[in-house]
């Protein structure tokens, strides 16, 4: 949740859960009697532990996008603590149907297409090295200690840096030159070109392939170093002066707009091309493999078809048939995943009707679209480990905002309806991507998909209450998360601004999309589809990595002008590339553990900072503004 509020992203806990779970459960498996959990603890058991950890953090993005936007628009109570019951029941709606309808997709994405799922591969290699080999015990100790060291360093760094953010966290290098008299260089700061010492995103860079990192950074450069300044020069977008004392510093990310069509901010302008790029890139990839998708569902439904038509021989196309290496008793049967989808769908329809007065038919349609958008999340996770789930939620908002407006709902009810249905799509898409990543690990280790499903269900139950509780903690420490204003907040919450803008736009009389933004979105969307067709039709597979990753580019369009994360991810990827070349064994031993420790450590360090903020002893109260632009605290 911390990372989602800071960056608009969320990270699965698979790597951290696999190593720390081993460190805790392996000794207990030896020390405890079998009646209390003792016994054999091997790679397959480790996968189950990891899956529970991943699922426990799967609902955090709801509270880094849709819910803060709803509070900013005044659609819910005065504060989250007053709405705890409704928060819990809605989170329950989002907790399970994404998990269940992911199961038919395993054969397509993992067994047939063999997508990389970089985080899943990293977790599989990590788990295998903890358990397998004559030196496995010694290697496990080294990995565990390096994870713990990195984890503690990341927590400490995140907490300590809060007291001197301009020195220890963000390097506002253009401000240094500005103070020396180079007034023109303020534009570098205004467009978000700051280097941040973030363990989380440097850790992400250690995991993702160079194609993804380069596309992410390249998309940021295209949007916020070329197209963005061009929009300002041509008058297609406008910025606002941050302080009259420093007129060279301009805010290009304002989402509170009087005239979003004729005078949008660059950030608002880029929402639409970014969303279109993400949608077209993902759907084009799915369209290129539609036969395999149908075959995957056909195999999952085969037992039901055989029961309905027991004497009817099915014609099997060997080119489309997907081989599943899991034993039959470890696969997830139709009654389990199908019954889970049906039960969770009915439960969601009842809760949303009783708690939020949403028509059950609308809820059912929202879940259908959530499944479609989950395919996009799966594509992104499988190819780049970047999951643009908030964008999928925004598109769901557009669809259901139009439905609500067509049915004559007033703007406020429309905004609440499209926000909640968008969160259903967001949660399902993220759960689907997370679970498929874990299923990749399961596939490589040879573990049981059914056992993983049970672990995911248990972790999701924890997540329902944990996510709601943490949201109350963060908003108590930082009320600006839920407050609509143009002032600076410790949590930029980039997803919240986009969510709020879309919610207001689709409930207005006409869709407030700038003409130039809409045209650019259409042109880019067509280009992405054509390029994907060319890649699969004429380019040999070995050259596919030379094509830009449009999912990463689309994320960069929407995230900016905050370019610290693309730069940090590219830096981490360059380090990983050099490290792998110089010492492959060293990277295999320590690389993934360092990445996991950095990601988890920064996130939990943010929780510590929230507690310090509530206690009135955080960097905002006791810190220094040295190194910060405009001489204002920048933590």
Automatic annotation (TrEMBL):
GO MF terms, alphabetically ordered: oligopeptide transmembrane transporter activity
Keyword Membrane attributed: yes
Entry superkingdom: Eukaryota
Keyword flag Translocase: no
Entry keyword set: Membrane, Transmembrane, Transmembrane helix, Transport
Record's subcellular location: Membrane
Family: Belongs to the oligopeptide OPT transporter family.
NCBIfam families given in the database record: OPT_sfam (TIGR00728)
Record-given protein name: OPT superfamily oligopeptide transporter
Biological source species: Calocera cornea HHB12733
């Amino acid at each position: 949740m911390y990372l989602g509020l800071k960056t608009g992203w969320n990270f699965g806990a698979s790597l951290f859960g696999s190593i720390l779970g081993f460190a805790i459960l392996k000794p207990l498996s030896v020390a405890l009697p079998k009646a209390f959990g003792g016994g054999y603890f091997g790679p397959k058991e480790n996968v189950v532990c990891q899956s529970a950890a991943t699922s426990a953090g799967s609902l955090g993005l709801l509270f880094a996008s849709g819910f803060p936007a709803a509070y900013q628009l005044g659609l819910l109570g005065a504060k989250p603590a007053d709405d705890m019951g409704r928060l819990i029941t809605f989170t329950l709606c989002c907790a399970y149907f994404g998990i269940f309808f992911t199961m038919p997709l395993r054969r397509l994405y993992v067994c047939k297409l063999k997508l990389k799922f970089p985080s899943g591969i990293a977790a599989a290699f990590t788990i295998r090295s903890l358990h397998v080999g004559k030196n496995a015990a010694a290697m496990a100790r080294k990995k565990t200690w390096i994870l713990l060291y990195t984890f503690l360093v990341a927590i400490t760094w995140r907490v300590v840096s809060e007291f001197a953010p301009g020195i220890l966290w963000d390097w506002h290098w253009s401000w240094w030159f500005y103070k020396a008299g180079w007034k023109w260089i303020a534009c570098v700061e205004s467009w978000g070109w700051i280097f941040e010492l973030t363990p989380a995103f440097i850790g992400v860079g250690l995991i993702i392939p160079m194609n993804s990192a380069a596309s992410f950074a390249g998309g940021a450069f295209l949007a916020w170093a070329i197209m963005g300044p061009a929009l300002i020069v041509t008058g297609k977008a406008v910025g606002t002066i941050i302080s009259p004392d420093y007129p060279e510093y301009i805010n290009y990310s304002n989402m509170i707009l009087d005239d979003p069509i004729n005078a949008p901010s660059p950030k608002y302008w880029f929402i639409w091309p970014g969303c279109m790029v993400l949608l077209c890139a993902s759907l084009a990839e799915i369209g290129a493999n539609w036969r395999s998708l149908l075959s995957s569902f056909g195999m999952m439904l085969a037992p039901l078809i055989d029961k309905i038509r027991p004497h009817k021989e099915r014609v099997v196309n060997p080119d489309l048939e997907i081989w599943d290496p899991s034993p039959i008793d470890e696969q997830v049967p139709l009654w389990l995943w199908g019954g889970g989808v049906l039960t969770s769908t009915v439960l969601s329809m009842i809760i949303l009707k009783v708690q939020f007065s949403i028509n059950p038919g609308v809820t059912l349609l929202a879940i259908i679209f959530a499944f479609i958008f989950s395919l996009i999340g799966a594509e992104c996770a499988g190819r780049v480990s970047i999951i643009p789930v908030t964008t999928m939620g925004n598109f769901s908002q557009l669809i259901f905002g139009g439905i609500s407006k067509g049915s004559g709902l007033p703007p406020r009810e429309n905004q609440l309806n499209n926000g909640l249905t968008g969160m259903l799509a967001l949660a399902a898409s993220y759960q689907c991507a997370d679970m498929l990543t874990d299923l990749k690990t399961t596939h490589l280790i040879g573990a049981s998909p059914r056992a993983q499903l049970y672990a995911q269900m248990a972790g999701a139950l924890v997540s329902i209450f944990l996510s709601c509780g943490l949201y109350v903690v963060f908003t108590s420490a930082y009320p600006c998360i839920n407050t609509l204003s143009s002032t600076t907040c410790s949590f930029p919450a980039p997803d919240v601004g986009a969510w709020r803008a879309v919610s207001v736009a689709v409930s207005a009389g006409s869709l407030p999309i700038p003409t130039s933004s809409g045209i650019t979105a259409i042109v880019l969307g067509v280009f992405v589809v054509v390029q994907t067709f060319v890649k699969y039709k004429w380019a040999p597979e070995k050259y596919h990595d030379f094509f830009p990753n449009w999912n990463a580019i689309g994320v960069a369009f929407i995230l900016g002008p905050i370019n610290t994360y693309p730069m940090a991810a590219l830096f981490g990827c360059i380090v990983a590339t050099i490290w792998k070349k110089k010492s492959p064994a060293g990277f295999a031993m320590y690389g993934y553990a360092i990445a996991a420790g950095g990601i988890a450590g920064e996130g939990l360090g943010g929780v510590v900072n929230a507690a310090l903020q509530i206690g009135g002893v955080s960097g905002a109260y006791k810190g220094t503004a040295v190194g910060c632009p405009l001489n204002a605290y920048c933590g």
